[in-house]
């Protein structure tokens, strides 16, 4: 029974059998064809027997074909993650194989089918990529291989049970990319602008020899007189500033864009920004909230702190109620006493929605440097760029212009009360947020 469960008839055989049925029908009309049809059928049966013997003949105890799936221990949300299939042909003839990989149901893909031809004792690797759009646990099933001889009449199924549960974390691949570019001073490649430093920090570092290009206003005349050489005061960026990302988990962050929710975009941007802040010698923290306060990670700069932030972000989920900004303000006042940079990731669709929360935002801005980060509706922008060709499209475009204008009014309203704002498309969120942080740091505002 095990043998028959592993044996499959190829499409080629089914087509030949249909052809034989037609030939037998034709032989009843022309009896002279009947002996030739029987002979051909006998040849087909003999070839099928030969094919089966080649597939199941096993002179050694080990399996005649081997396959293995190689994938990372964890996947990065919203990124292309590599998956490799390792194949090894142990047959004494060239084997043609079909590989079906049982990937997690979250991908909603039923076409993960690959074909390959391997020479005797040849190994081959097949590589493909998967892009998860939700955080959580993903279950990978078996790797199914259907091997065929050069005759391609029968298939033998090999099933390699590689059941594995892999966790999908926030976009750590994007975080590493920004980290490497920051270390090599190439952040401009991902849209990070170079900001001209205005003045200098007041944190004194050392007295050193003058170099061409140094600000003459920093010349230390007493040291110059002692050394008989131009000496200047060197300053450095202020360090250990507290940077907090406040992530709204309410229903406004549930909207999808290219498979990811707005919450996932905010989580990925938070991960990158926190890592950049730690590289800049600042302290990174995190607070999540919805109708109730979620998790608080105090701003620190200790070994393993980035892993702690990653673990907290992995567990966050959107909720269905409106967020409570009064509870957010109360919690900030209780737990964050030092003046800090607060980046609030949320979304406002109308000015009225902003005005309901504006009193709490103004109170936060009195104690901290507050930046409100919210999202453009990119579909509205696309609709506005397309010309209207009917009365219905004119109405749709008019309504779209109203909502698009509301977003601009929200920015103006926040600026009126001294609150900085970032209105950005979801795909540009990370770059725009890091740009703003570096700009404020260069201006000495944090």
Automatic annotation (TrEMBL):
Transmembrane segments: 12-30, 36-56
InterPro entries: DUF58 (IPR002881)
Pfam families: DUF58
Entry keywords, A to Z: Membrane, Transmembrane, Transmembrane helix
Keyword Membrane: yes
Sequence ranges assigned to domain DUF58 in this UniProt record: 206-373
Keyword Transmembrane helix: yes
Protein name: DUF58 domain-containing protein
Native source species: Larkinella punicea
